[in-house]
Amino acid sequence: MKMYFKNANFYKNGVFISADAIYDGNSFNIFENGINDTDIATFRIFNNCYILPGFCDVHVHFREPGYLYKEDIESGCMAAAHGGYTAVCTMPNLSPTPDSMKNLSVQLDAIKQKANIAVLPFGTITKGEQGEELSDIEDISEYVVGFSDDGKGVQSEQMMLSAMERIKKTGKLISAHCEENSLLNGGYIHDGEYARLHGHRGICSKSEWLPVQRDIELVKKTECPYHVCHISAKETVDVIREAKRNGVDITCETGPHYLVMNDMQLMENGRFKMNPPIRSDIDRQALVVGILDGTIDMIATDHAPHSAEEKSRGLEKSLMGVVGLEIAFAVLYTELVKKNIISMEKLVELMSENPRKRFSIGSDVGFTVFDCDNEYEIKTEDFLSKGKSSPFEGKKVYGKCLLTVYEGKAVYVREEK
Ligand SMILES: [Zn+2]
User: Fold this and answer.
1) Residues within 5 Å of ion ligand 1 by Cβ?
2) I need a labelling partner for 42 at 20 to 30 A (CA). Which of 180, 191, 259, 372 fits?
3) Mean pLDDT of all residues in 103-118
4) 410 - beta bridge partners?
5) Is the model's pLDDT at 39 over the cut of 90?
6) What pLDDT shows up at residue 35?
7) Adjacency order of strands within the sheet including 250-254
8) Where, residue-wise, is CATH 3.20.20.140 in the chain?
9) Is 99 among the catalytic positions?
10) What's the CATH class of domain 53-366?
């Protein structure tokens, strides 16, 4: 489809300017002084769209190698491009786990063959994410964006200290999934009002903030660049704010669902289950404050696809994780920008600029074009991801992706039915 974006809001050098743009089926061109005599009779016209830098998600699960029935690099990239993303960092809970050059090569080959956007793998901190022996950190450091045992916390303080000492020398950073196993007590949703009312076992906030607090002391010792994954609790925001004030080299991310939902909105359905869990409204509000005051640096989706069966077992028995790439912008635009809680410029920082800066992602940024004028209902059956489980199913939102361009090529084009 040929597209003419008339009077678009084009994000350039931190501000929005008015521009026209066309996609002629081949290339995408922006005209800051408007279009005069281009032959656009055959183009479909879209008014007042937003032309944004391609988003960057530093926390996705593309499941390849190992679990291709949940997602693979090709379907993951299609979902990412459909959500406006041109760069993603994949978490290493794969099979084989990227903990040695031999294992990482399997993933790197698949990326080379299938990826049409920037796909940057994390290597594991410990072999097999077992927490017992460090990975071949120096061997793989050149080929990974950072190190993470995502899905599990590194339980041993001594192991984390050794990891930081070695990773610090590689120039890469640690992206830590913080979770203290001894505090979990078989929990699977937030240890709060909803769990009490419906007889579920809860996950306490301390299981998240305690290991963050532990690691901050290790970062002070080692000066290893450190990033905290998917923070969900008020206390975690407080702990990180304090560390930043003290000059610790720490950043963090949160996810769309933690920013716009609370545990009282849960239903008895696996699509509301992820780790960490959606917490109370006090936690949610603290996360929004953390976004506003710069404690929280970026928004990552933790896109974690599973099969329909794996998500069909209710809150207690379904697997942890929901998909998010295809609706993150729409949800955040609708709930935060449209309600004047943050500006569109701030959202671009959180979804594109800050993650690229922190993780030194130097690939082409590209563009993504969104129509923010027309409301629609989220239908997960329309997702290009193999995963269809989302707490936002049925939600009415603004922000539909029309086009995503990476390295000059359209990697997503909306075809109207
Ligand atoms: Zn995680």
Assistant:
1) 150, 177, 229
2) 372
3) 98
4) 405
5) no
6) 86
7) 55-60, 85-90, 118-123, 146-147, 173-176, 226-228, 250-254, 298-299
8) 53-366
9) no
10) alpha beta
